[in-house]
Amino acid sequence: MKIYNxxxxxxxxxxxxxxxxxxxxxxxxxxxxxFHIGNARSFVMADIIQRYLxxxxxxxxxxxxxxxxxxxxxxxxxxxxVDAKEIAERFSQAFFEDIGKLKVRKADVYPKATEHxxxxxxxxxxxxNKGIAYRTNxxxxxxxxxxxxxxKLSGKKIxxxxxxxxxxxxxxxxxxxxxxxxxxxxxxxxxxxSPWGEGRPGWHIECSAxxxxxxxxxxxxxxxxxDLIFPHHENEIAQSEGATxxxxxxxxxxFGFLNIRDEKMSKSLGNFFTAREILKKYPPETIRLLFxxxxxxxxxxxxxELLNSVNKGLEKITNFYQTVTGLExxxxxxxxxxxxxxxxYYADFENAMDDDFNTPKAVAVIYDFIKVVNxxxxxxxxxxxxxxxxxIGFMDKTAEGVxxxxxxxxxxxxxxxxxxxxxxxLFVKIRSEAKxxxxxxxxDLIRDELGKLGYILxxxxxxxxxxxxx
Length: 470
Fold this sequence. Notes:
Layout: E1 2-5, E2 10-13, E3 21-26, H1 37-55, E4 59-64, H2 71-80, H3 84-101, H4 117-129, E5 133-136, E6 139-142, H5 158-165, E7 179-184, E8 199-201, H6 203-215, E9 219-225, H7 229-244, E10 249-255, E11 258-260, E12 263-264, H8 275-279, H9 284-292, E13 300-302, H10 304-330, H11 342-354, H12 359-379, H13 385-400, E14 414-415, H14 422-436, H15 440-452, E15 455-460, E16 463-468
Parallel strand pairs: 3-4, 3-9, 9-10, 11-13
Antiparallel strand pairs: 1-2, 5-6, 6-7, 7-8, 11-12, 14-16, 15-16
Helix pairs in contact: 2-3, 4-6, 4-7, 6-7, 9-10, 10-13, 11-12, 11-13, 14-15
């Protein structure tokens, strides 16, 4: 299993620090608004990565933080005339609601910055004692020139950064690249006691303190959006390694940008979509399938046309799952097992995911699996329960268990020989009689009208199967 490591700029064999345990930290939301569809991509892809590691048998500890004290939260609170804590709590709740709808499995820990002030203060004190941090009028800054490897994640050079940063004038700083670890309190802002006076933590130090608190001073995987590489993740490395003298993270994973119609998503361009808005129009499986069809590190161009196209692909997956579930329910234990090597598909799926979580290739394996099984079923449905259970098991473990793209809550498809709605059954019987009498106009009319009502009629050698559209 190989992962592309942003730190080394190459794919590396994945070897956990303490196998089979794997520690993962993902930068979560700043809870001042509903998260947008670009954030959703990071959350979903991180979810797929942790799901696959669990599928592979690793014991994963998954940590995603919530930044609940920040300039944006304070600004929003001032605009609404409420307390910053109220804003943070409101949008924390919204975050959990929306990731739940996206089928993102719960993290093992959701640390909040405001609940880790003690750890943050201790970390800053350690940096100050080592001469890496300095205080100025109640503020504390990190001295980037004291960390020789500054820029190793992003590839940026300090001298080039300095020349580009000189336009910023801040007399408190020794260097324009230095960043705040602790900010002195301003009137009406949230603040806490500290050795430097009342204030609040800087953004970067929060993640260093929280990740090391819950995963240790060195852990396996740190993930987040590509836009966080610099300065956020670069500063995390500088803070953490400056304080401990140990490697901070072994593997860095970054998720590509999401564009809207070939343009960067922004409120000013009017092309800003929240995940909450999109979820009102499309099922979560469609969104997850859309994200899965592009490699996590590549840019993704988001549009409703693309979502509609992906929705048709989801319909194929859902109809297939309903069909095999319905056949498994009605078939007997006895029966044949076709010449079909299901182990090949497991191997192909794992080979794809083992190659830096190549979800597009994994999705292609699932579609190929569906195509082959559909062909077998069209030729003969008189297979044993074992066959259908194996097929369902493959979909449950891969398509749903790892990618989360099966609408398993749908009612299984039922055949005309099964227990279906009496009215639908009557229409199917009328249509069958019409076809026997070669009255194809009536048969087609029934099929088309039922289609408008959301039902698909599929004729098989064993009768008519009714599927409900997605």
